[in-house]
Write a structure and sequence with these properties.
Structural class: alpha/beta
Shape: globular
Strand content: 25-35%
Helix content: 10-25%
Number of helices: 11
Bound molecules: alpha-L-arabinofuranose
Number of strands: 26
Length: 516
């Protein structure tokens, strides 16, 4: 068994994780809203139609912020359709997912749901079919206390207090040809800057996210971020990033290496933003909002997995069934986000329920945790604090990762260390958590970590997620086929922590750091 050496020092810190790093995403897409978080008539639904069984799992998952209402959906959305008396709300064709949108659930219901789930809302405005005027009006409706037609409308609709939504996305994936009224970087940059200006006049407390390109495999990637930020630099706080990793090539080693792809993507977008700052001689740093990330491929390529004929309401589309190997790649992405805590201040797992989601439901029936639920819950619960700079001496491997989105078929060469690790220290004298992914498919790794802390270390608990079958998945009938088990092999002697990490495993080790 190979030994991997790690050195950590409690005083060598990359950055502090922002609370918003642990977000998710709810889109009007398939059964994410209808039959997911909202299902009046379900035995567990409360008086507002919120599924309590789903809410219980959301609380266990512990997201901090939830992005809404899209996604591609937002680029054709009239926010006015989703407020006011439910009986008079229009039914509309949704051109993003070729569905019928009933508008039974809208912004106010979402805000109530956020209160019930104890999460912060992150709203997106439509910069596809609409523009800054609709955006500023939506913001006035939501956040202005009273005394104007729009704020009084909100109050008359039953929401007396302003919603106080701080975080807003200026559209979604506006470079994608699949987007309603997609734009060039010049077109979008100008509209986003003008929208941002007005939104900040309405409410100076808002924080705004400009759209980055839809992924590192887009032909627009890089140049898009630069042009958009040349327009918006003064007006926004964040640029968005989206990444869905895949196993189209049926190559588990390549899938597990995608955390490295994410690392590079983050560093390239940060460098691009800093290049724009440099040309302005500005000390301002545009932060990154990684507001869509996940593993997604089984239900992505074929038209019949993405849309159903006949303009259905809440069809069962894009319902990815996650496996053990997906949970490992997903864990690698969590580690990448933690290790860039200095720059990534918002991140949203896409999505929350049913649609490429950690939580699955049956409409009218059960709810269960997918494999990816477990690494996310641990990432969110134990990932708050200072991320330590890990010095890792691990053997690595080279692979080719296939990602066909965009004009050309792209192969990304990747070199990944077998051990990927992030270490988070919540407070002096508190808890230090190691998140460790063994990417080796057939060999265990012996972890040998030396951690310089002022006080002695003891093990609180340690967990491992692994399965001899990388394709094992959780289902309604076997909801706990893949779940964390105790990692028994952890030994601590003074500053040294040792453990055996099983082949293809995700591991979480929580250590108490005694006060000095
Ligand atoms: O999350 C699913 C879709 O993926 C979103 O609607 C879109 O923004 C992205 O392409």
């Amino acid at each position: 068994m190979r030994t991997v050496h790690v050195r950590l020092d409690a005083t060598a810190v990359i950055g502090t994780t922002d609370r918003r790093l642990f977000g998710t995403f709810v889109e009007h897409l398939g059964r994410c809203v209808y039959g997911g978080i909202f299902e009046p008539g379900h035995p567990s639904a409360d008086g507002r139609g919120f599924r309590r069984d789903v809410l219980a799992l959301v609380r266990e998952l512990t997201p901090t912020v939830v992005r809404y209402p899209g996604g591609n959906f937002v680029s054709g959305y009239n926010w006015e359709d989703g407020v006011g008396p439910v009986e008079t709300r229009p039914r509309r064709l949704d051109l993003a997912w070729l569905s019928t949108e009933t508008n039974l659930f809208g912004t106010n219901e979402f805000i109530d749901w956020c209160h019930a789930a104890d999460v912060e809302p992150m709203l997106a405005v439509n910069l596809g079919t609409r523009d800054g005027d609709a955006a500023r009006q939506m913001l006035e409706y939501c956040n202005h206390p009273a005394g104007t037609t729009l704020s009084e409308q909100r109050r008359a609709h039953g929401w007396d207090a302003p919603h106080g939504v701080r975080l807003w996305c200026l559209g979604n994936e506006m470079d994608g040809p699949w987007q309603m009224q997609a734009k060039t970087a010049e077109e979008y940059g100008r509209i986003a800057a003008e929208t941002a200006k007005m939104m900040k006049w309405v409410d100076p407390h808002v924080e705004l996210v400009a759209c980055g390109s839809s992924g590192p495999n887009m032909p627009t990637f890089g140049a898009w971020e630069q042009t958009v930020l040349e327009h918006c630099f003064e007006h926004v706080e964040y640029i968005s990033m989206h990444l869905y990793v895949n196993d189209y090539a049926n190559d588990a080693a390549a899938l597990l290496a995608t955390g490295v792809l994410m690392d590079g993507f983050i560093e390239q977008v940060a460098a691009t933003a800093d290049g724009v700052a440099a040309r302005r001689r500005s000390a301002k740093r545009i932060m990154l909002s990684f507001d869509e990330w996940n593993v997604w491929y089984r239900t992505r390529r074929r038209q019949e997995d993405r849309v159903k004929p006949g303009w259905p309401v809440a069809p069962d589309i894009i319902e990815e069934h996650y496996t053990m190997q997906d949970a490992l790649a997903f864990g690698g992405m969590c580690i990448s986000l933690l290790n860039h805590a200095d720059r990534v201040k918002v991140a949203c797992l896409a999505q929350l329920v049913n649609v490429i989601a950690p939580i699955m439901t049956e409409t009218g029936g059960a709810v269960w945790r997918q494999t990816i639920f477990h690494p996310f819950a641990q990432f969110s619960r134990f990932g708050r604090g200072s991320v330590l700079r890990a010095d890792i001496d691990s053997p690595d491997y080279t692979t080719r990762y296939y990602d066909p989105r965009g004009a050309a078929e792209l192969w990304f060469p990747l070199t990944a260390p077998y051990l990927s690790l992030a270490a988070v220290h919540d407070k002096p004298g508190g808890t230090l958590t190691l998140f460790a992914l063994n990417r080796h498919l057939t060999e265990a790794l012996s972890l040998d970590a030396v951690i310089r802390t002022p006080g002695a270390l003891t093990v609180i608990e340690a967990w491992q997620l692994c399965d001899a079958d990388l394709h094992a998945a959780n289902t309604k009938d076997h909801p706990d086929r893949v779940k964390p088990a105790a990692l028994e092999s952890v030994r601590v002697v003074r500053e040294q922590v040792q453990a055996t990490l099983a082949p293809a495993s995700w591991n979480v080790v929580r250590l108490r750091v005694a006060a000095a």
